[in-house]
Every structure is written in C-alpha cells, then in structure tokens.
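Worked example 4.2. Below are the chains of a multi-component assembly; read each line carefully before continuing.
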Amino acid sequence: MCNSGVSSGWELHPQLARDTIAIGDLTLSRVLLVADANYPWLLLVPRRSGLVELLDLDEADRAQLMSEITRASRGLKTVTLCDKLNIAAIGNIVSQLHIHIVARRRTDSAWPKPVWGLPSRVYDPADLDRLVNALHCELVAD
Amino acid sequence: MCNSGVSSGWELHPQLARDTIAIGDLTLSRVLLVADANYPWLLLVPRRSGLVELLDLDEADRAQLMSEITRASRGLKTVTLCDKLNIAAIGNIVSQLHIHIVARRRTDSAWPKPVWGLPSRVYDPADLDRLVNALHCELVAD
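Applying the procedure described above to all two chains together yields the following structure tokens:
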C-alpha cells in the first residue's frame, strides 16, 4: 500500500471496503479480494476521484487500467488454476468505478451463471490468509 | 462489413449470430446488437480465431480492443442517453471471446441487477430498424 501519487482526494467507497480484503496497490488501481469463499474474486479500483464509467478515465489511464486488468487476470489464473475468468465493470449499486475479475470453475456453486447478486460464503481464516499472501506475491510484490 | 484484414479463418459463433443483429465491423471487432428489447445491448467480438480470454489477445490487439470498447461505449451512450454502462467479458456458455456493453436505465426491467440469464423481449421491428441505423451511423460509418 505504499505506492505514491494518484490517490490525492481519492477514498475507497465504504461498501467496497467492507466487502473486501486489500491485496495491495498497482500504479493506478487498488487490488482487493472480495470476501466470498465461493470464488476467488478480485476488484481493481482506480485511485482517481469521481470515476463512474470507464469513459471517465483519460486515455493514458485507460491503457494503464487495461494493463493492470491483464496483470491481475494472469496472476489470478496462476494462483487459482481456474477454468475461466469473468471480467466486468457494472457499478449499478456502488457507482465508484471498480473492475471485477472473478476466477470461475466449472464446479463452482454458480457455474455457468455470473456471480453477482448471489449469497456469499465466509472464508476459512487459514485459507483466506494463504490466498491473500499468494495474490499479494503474484500481483503486487516486486 | 467491408473492413479487410483480421478475419482470416475467423467465424462468428453460431449462437452469437443467432441472438444478434450485425451493426458493422471496427478494425478488430464485429459489433452486434443483442436481440433483446429490454436494454440496448452491444457485443464486440474480436475477429481473431481461437480467442477465449482477454489474455489470449496480444498487447496491440488488447489496446485496440480497449479503444473499440471506448468508442462503442461512447456511441451507445450518445444514442441511448442511458444512466449507466455495464461492460463485461464472461463467456461461461459461449466461449468465443465477446465483450458485452449494455446501456442500463434505472427504470429498466432488471435494474439494478445485471442482465445476464434473464428472459429477453422481442423488438418492435420499426424500433429495431431505428436503433440499428442510429448505432451504425454513430459507431461504424465513416
């Protein structure tokens, strides 16, 4: 969480803070793990104030976000060996721009449906620690 | 539909063809309108064979896709004056890489839920003609 720069005036939306565990910061985005043991599920939240749509980013930030989506997707796939990635910017409930990257398995509880709006499941604390550490090492540690 | 180049060996997945109306081709992607009158709903399908994940695109194509997502999102917003855009790459059922760009209104039948997996509604033919023409002019006509 020590990257400098882009966050002036930016604050993570309280509902996103409540529903997630922080993994770390990339150049533009904060990386969060959604607290739902049904699926390894990341959020990328660009640390710029007032963003709602992808269109609200300037071109350089949009390119940076695509690069960070790629990095996070690759890392999540490496850590989870998932069958499919689901990537989305929805924001109908929490408007602060956030990108979902969900590691899906053909055996998960929602497959093949999307995961939004379904009941969540609490992580076993040891499993959560292992996953957070693995994601931190893969995605944000230098 | 006259752009040259990227399509060698590529074919649109039959289910995507069945569920949509073609709007036209951008440099990389075919633009389709989903035949569901509940929400103006575009698909972008990069015309490269064998793509499943965003990660399967090379870096230049990923940048081009982000540029086309931006163009299509802006055009869809201009044409529909929607309240929110929902953008996603899911592909759990049809694996051929396709990007959803959905124009949402706070008054639409699914709001605030995502649109996937819900019953569709048939377009009035005149409304469909008008929308397809407006999208074609805004998104793909030079």
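Take a moment to check your reading of the output against the notes. Strands of chain B lie at 20-25, 29-34, 41-46, 84-89, 99-104. Chain B has one domain: 14-139.
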